[in-house]
Structure formats: structure tokens, C-alpha cells
From TrEMBL:
SUPFAM superfamilies documented for this protein: Phosphoglucomutase, C-terminal domain (SSF55957), Phosphoglucomutase, first 3 domains (SSF53738)
NCBIfam families on file: PRK09542.1 (NF007088)
Protein name: Phosphomannomutase/phosphoglucomutase
Domain Alpha-D-phosphohexomutase C-terminal: 377-453
Family classification: Belongs to the phosphohexose mutase family.
The species this protein was found in: Dietzia lutea
One Pfam family cited in the UniProt record for this chain: PGM_PMM_III
Gene3D superfamilies in UniProt: Alpha-D-Glucose-1,6-Bisphosphate, subunit A, domain 3 (3.40.120.10), Alpha-D-phosphohexomutase, C-terminal domain (3.30.310.50)
Molecular function in Gene Ontology: intramolecular phosphotransferase activity; metal ion binding
Amino acid sequence: MARSAESVRAVIKAYDVRGVVGEQIDADFVREVGASFARLMRSEGAGTVVIGHDMRDSSPGLSAAFADGVTAQGLDVVMIGLASTDQLYFASGLLECPGAMFTASHNPAKYNGIKLCRAGAKPVGQESGLRTIADEVIEGVPAYDGEAGTVSERDVLEGYGEYLRGLVDLSGIRRLKVAVDAGNGMGGHTVPAVLGGLPLEIVPLYFELDGNFPNHEANPLEPANLVDLQALVRESGADIGLAFDGDADRCFVVDERGEPVAPSAITALVAERELAKEPGASIIYNLITSRAVPELVEEKGGVAVRTRVGHSFIKAQMADTGAVFGGEHSAHYYFRDFWGADSGMLAAMHVLAALGAQDGTLSELMGEYTRYAASGEINSTLDSAEAQTERMEAVVTAFSDRAVSVDRLDGVTVDLGDGAWFNLRASNTEPLLRLNAEAPTRGDVDAVVDEVLAIVRA
């Protein structure tokens, strides 16, 4: 069944498949995506695809339709049922087969989507398969004239927990009180399986799996969605708070005062721990991560490797450099020991291990890793690519007499010297210019932000 190019390309995006259920995504569409993915994987020698899904109402039905498409192309399917995205990556690595995860991550309830990977959790992005799949779905996926594949079920949750506990040993830490906001997402499924039985008192919040997100959106990147966890940490006297997004591949951290800990600081802490295990190793950081990360990596004898924003770039650099770890400002954390894939749970376990190995508070522990003031990501709506380019160039011109350097790895990054810099780049998915700035003091950051936004929003 051929589909319009516009409708297909609106859903098959740069990194994944995502859209509104019933309008952009339905069982027939997903069946065709599954069939095309199976054809691509079969051409690369795969014989099995593992499929997992989150707690959204539409996820079981859509994952079953995808399985129909895969088996119709002669490949077998292993269904792991309810899973976090990093649990699906674990299954892909364990079984050494391609995978499909049904989730729309932090998006509202009306959305769903698919994250695809090759065997060993290797990414499938626009240039590494998604464009091919989109083209086939538009033209109509050719039928397969061989024997259909089979469907089996396998529970990998216990194995996932055992694997993570083997990477980060928490058995000997001091007892910690840990407040966890699962946001009615998959953290409510994985946290008990991974952290249960350890010297941790878990104070749960919104662990009930509910894809309608009755309490708040499962997007901890938005400050409003951290408010309940911050209150719980303060009220319960917890040592630390953890907030997971909908598919639990990202984890955000709150200290004992209820204050958010910057993902860049978490990246620096985990990098230091990984370098202690493997001195001289490479660490990946994206270009809007705090400069504290490369500074600390180099101080600890590691090699800091800078990359563009986006998981496909991070994972490619991980593979090319053999890096042990990579971190992003958005709280995605990537581990060589986890097939180069991202796991918010594994990052959280590193923080728990570091906190539980000493007697101080989390805010005291993180002080070493927080060296600069940062703006956070500030978005400005500009409807055309031409307007975005025009404003970026106007900003570069305005700062040209003060800039130590300007690079264009991803948008424009302007280094102002003495620890001050900003990056301005176009969103990959929305009509936005994204600004991130960092400087030694909050006043310095505010001055840079005000000047840049006056030009961007003129």
C-alpha cells in the first residue's frame, strides 16, 4: 500500500518514528514499517528482531502489528513485553539481534513511536536506514515469497537488572534514602527490578504505569515536572531524588535540598569514575555540555572528544574512538559497557555509588563538578531556515570583535574567552533556534543571553 511522501516523512524522523496515534500512526502503517525494517535487517544477515513496548494504551497493539510485518518478511520475533528503552537495548545486545522499542518517550499520551536499532543496540538513523524505510513505505513494501517467521516471548527484566548491578556495585554503600519519580512511566517497572534488595530506601512517586500521564508529563527536562519530586525530597529527608522520563532512558537528579543537578555535572562525575577504571580513556561530550566536562577529563588524564548534539553522533563517535562513556546536556548517558547505548538507570547507579561511598551530601559532592553558570536551553521560534540562518549570522557579526573563536560544528559556537561561550543552533525537529550559554558568573551569562536574544528575536 503506497502512502504519500509528505505523511510518511512527517513521521519517520531523523532519529526515530513518532507521531499522533490514529492520525499519523496506526496498525497498518506500523505493519509496513516493520516489514521494511525486516527487509533491511534480512539484507544485513539478521534472522530475528526483538520488540519491546512502553505503558501507553496504544503500545501493545502497535508492537503486535509491527511483529506481523516482521514475520511476514520471514524473520522471527522475540517479544519482551513491557520494557524501558534501555531494557530493549539490553535485549538487543544480549540476543545479538536488531530491536524495535515502541514509545514516544516524554511526548504526551496521544503520541507513539518506534526507536529502532541493529544488533548490539547499534543505532538506526536517517542516514543508516530510516530514509530507506521511508522510501519503501511510500512506494509500497514488496511482499516476501518465503516462509513466515515465528513469534516467541521472553522476559529479560531480571537479566537486565543483574547486568546493570554487575557494572556498578552498590552492595557496599552506606544506606541511602532515594526519592524516585517515575512519572507513571517505565521507571515504575525497572526501578524495583534493578534497585530492589540494595542498601537503598526507595520512596516511590507515580510508579503506577499509566500512559495517560495523570500527574504530570514524563519529561523531567521541563522544570514544572520536577516540582513534585523536589517537594518529596524535602519532605522525606531523602539523600537524593531521581526523575525518569516516559521510557526511562533518561534520568534527572535532584540533590538533598531539592535542587536540580545539571546533567553536565553528572557527566563529569561519571567520566571521572570511568577514567578511574580505565586511565587515559576517551570520553565523549556534546558541544553544549559544560566546559567543566572536558576540563575535568583532561585533568584526570583522559581524552575529551567533542561532538554534535544528537544520539546518532554520540554513538558514532563512541564506536570510532572506543570511548568508555559519553554524556549529553539532555541527560542521555552512553556506556561502552552497555553496547555504546544510553541508560539513565546506569548513570543513576553511578551517582548512587559515588554518594554512598562517602559521608557528605550530594550537593557537597557535586560542587567539584559545577564550575560555571549556565543559561539552560532557551528557544526562539523562527519559521524558516532562511530566517534562522540570517539571525545566526547577525549574531556572529555582532560578536566578531570580541570572539576568541567561532566554529560551526553544529550551528555556531562563539568562544568569548575567560570561560564564557554560547552556542546557537537550529532544532533538528522544530522551527526553533536553540541558545545555550555558559560563563563564570550568573551576571555574565545573563548579559550574553540578553544580547543574543535581542538580535534573534528582533
